[in-house]
Amino acid sequence: MTNKWHLKEIVLLSILGVVFAVIYLLAYGVGQGLVGFLTPFGLGPLGYEFIFGIWFIVSIIAAYIIRKPGAAFTSELIAGTVQVLIGSPAGPMLIISAAIQGLGAEFAFAVTKWRDYRLRVLIAAGVFAAVFSFVWHFYQSGFFAYAIGLVAVMFIIRIISGALLAGLLGKWISDQLAKTGVLRGYALGKELQKKRERNDAA
Amino acid sequence: MISSINPTVKAGAILVPGVLLGLMFDIFTPLVYLIFIILVTFAFTDISLKRWLLIFSPFVLFIVSFSWTRMLYTSESFQGGAILFEFWYFQVTTEALMVSISLALRSLCFIALSLLFILTTDSTKLMLSLMQQLKLPPKITYGVLAGYRFLPTFKHELEILRQAHRIRGVGRAKGIKGRLQQFKRYSIPLLANAIRKAERVANAMESKGFTGDRNRTHYHEMKVRRRDWVFFGSMVGALFLTVFMSYYFGYLNIFGREIN
């Protein structure tokens, strides 16, 4: 895979992984706050579900910018590994969950053969990341022992969160970045450039 | 000492028991294994008790919250046993209490395992070991290490952005709309700068002759020695021993099925 990649694309993946690893770690704090708020109602575990989409966002951004097979998976894996480097208390187990979420997002792009990067595919990537990660947590965190109703509510909230916070927000951030011109050397920037030229010609 | 164990093997020694613990739904297995991890932590590392507790204890609080919910909303397979207490429309049975304690102990095991890893592992060595033992492409490992080195500069850049805004009379945002505006004002330039840096680093690496070739020599050679495997074997072996003990005493419960 890496032979077809330019070095600058790989370094971009890594830098995105590093930046979002920090954001992911901050999101834990937000999640813990929500959990604390919901605990008196006996709904603590729902706290994380609302913001779960944020943990998939780097997949969507990286895939949308670079547009090559493996971008979604690798970027998420890097973000997970960097969190371990920084010292996340979730430790090496995080690398496994990152890989699974990344696979979920990559799956959506694989279905379109890595050719389609419209909003609906990005949202699907967020949703699949949510589905894959939920299956993993079902095993690892013992959701098996929860009442089926609660598990269903958690699942639905996580999917919506994945669609909005990863798919929609990810596209918005990447488009804003493309506008600044720093992405000229990458697929998304090139596409924007072409569009502009076409508009100028018309 | 655990800090000198090869990082990749160490990660494996944490991951394998971590994944297998997901199968256990009794109290005995995770409790005994937790005690084992804590013993290993203090016998074979120089982490001070105070530092460990400082990181560990906030999670206890957090796990209590999760267990509370788990106890109230238990699936049907764990609703047997006598009713302990009732309030609102919840009924808490002995089995529900047991399974929530088991899952809480499991989470504590995960955290204790993770601390054993992150408090004894140097991040550069981990990346070097991932490249040399797991044959991760050097392009990615060196890319990540370069990106990782930029972390401290992000803080500095945020400060510069803030000052630049202030000097131009952009104050702190009020209200939700203002907050969103502020988020955009900070996040996009920070990311744009990071991307510029990535491009520059990639150019610098290439101009210095970095090809990403896998057949390269290493200044720091990471090796796997016999004691690394001894560590791996004892972490995984201890779990199997615990499971066997738990089976022997008739506690073992895998996915809600009691095995004895």
From TrEMBL, chain A:
It holds the Pfam family ABC_cobalt. The keyword Membrane applies. The chain crosses the membrane at residues 12-30, 50-66, 121-139, 145-169. Keywords: Membrane, Transmembrane, Transmembrane helix. It comes from the Bacteria. InterPro entries: ABC_thiamin-permease_prd (IPR017195). This is Putative HMP/thiamine permease protein YkoE. It comes from Alkalibacillus haloalkaliphilus. The gene is ykoE.
UniProtKB/TrEMBL annotation, chain B:
PANTHER family: PROTEIN ABCI12, CHLOROPLASTIC. InterPro entries: ABC/ECF_trnsptr_transmembrane. One of its GO terms (cellular component) is plasma membrane. The lineage of its organism: Bacteria, Bacillati, Bacillota, Bacilli, Bacillales. It comes from Alkalibacillus haloalkaliphilus. It comes from the Bacteria. Its main location: membrane. The keyword Membrane applies. It is a multi-pass membrane protein. It holds the Pfam family CbiQ. This is Putative HMP/thiamine permease protein YkoC. Signal peptide: none annotated. Keywords: Membrane, Transmembrane, Transmembrane helix. The chain crosses the membrane at residues 20-45, 52-69, 96-119, 229-250. It is found in: Membrane.
